[in-house]
């Protein structure tokens, strides 16, 4: 049984003891009854605001919130589940800091670039369309013109900019989109050129995800799984590595000019 299933069972038992319905839990947490049912079955993870509302309604003291804080919600998970877990975290995160050494980050991709990337692994036209649409929808929260838009800081290697997907036109459009995003107040885009002095880099692409509860997670992918790490020591070390890399990368102004030069090479 997963942590989410155990926590869901706890909520259900507390609700039944209090004589409350799923609809009542949904009302105080601004969710419909079906979503509460999914949380109770362990299919979804509630956020802190929802847990606080239920704790007050069900009078569980601090037990529910303490348990929610202590649960390891995002361990290494099978590929069939990791995408939804990551997407859910993106919907809640207050900040993302990502390092990419092969491709442009998903939250910064154009439709044509995303289509070219998914075309490498998907053969079903319907599935390809669904995946691309889902990726573009995930960007909405970050590109919205709102003071509440989360920070998205990206460090890209030169290789990530020059790895061609979909042809020169697609790459030129992608570079132009990166320049557009770099002008938004909640985006920071930096480049590490191939000929940079030796700097310590992560072994794989990674993303540091800051959540509303104050916790940071480090996310990376392997061939078969998505990996979520929240061990404080590991997160601290990888955050320090990212911070040092950001200091060694080109400035945002220099990075924008570098991206323009790469874009011109595709035109």
Keywords:
alpha/beta, Endonuclease, Chain A, 2 domains, 7-stranded mixed sheet
Task: Kindly describe this structure.
This protein has 267 residues and is α/β, with parallel strands linked by helices. It has two domains: 68 residues, Orthogonal Bundle (434 Repressor (Amino-terminal Domain)); 190 residues, Endonuclease, Chain A. The chain contains twelve helices and seven strands. Strands 1-7-6-5-2-3-4 form a seven-stranded mixed beta sheet, with helices on both faces. The longest helix is centred in the middle third of the chain and has 19 residues. It starts with a helix and ends with a helix.
**Number of beta strands:** 7
**SSE class:** alpha/beta
What is the total number of structural domains? Answer: 2
What is the CATH top level name of the largest domain?
Answer: Alpha Beta
In short:
The protein has 267 residues and is of the alpha/beta class. The chain has twelve helices and seven strands. A seven-stranded mixed sheet has the order 1-7-6-5-2-3-4, sandwiched between helices.
Q: What topology emerges from the helices and strands here?
A:
Elements: H1 3-17, H2 22-29, H3 33-40, H4 48-58, H5 63-70, E1 77-78, H6 79-92, E2 95-100, H7 111-119, H8 125-143, E3 151-157, H9 158-162, H10 168-182, E4 187-192, E5 206-210, E6 216-221, E7 225-229, H11 232-248, H12 252-266
Parallel strand pairs: 2-3, 3-4
Antiparallel strand pairs: 1-7, 2-5, 5-6, 6-7
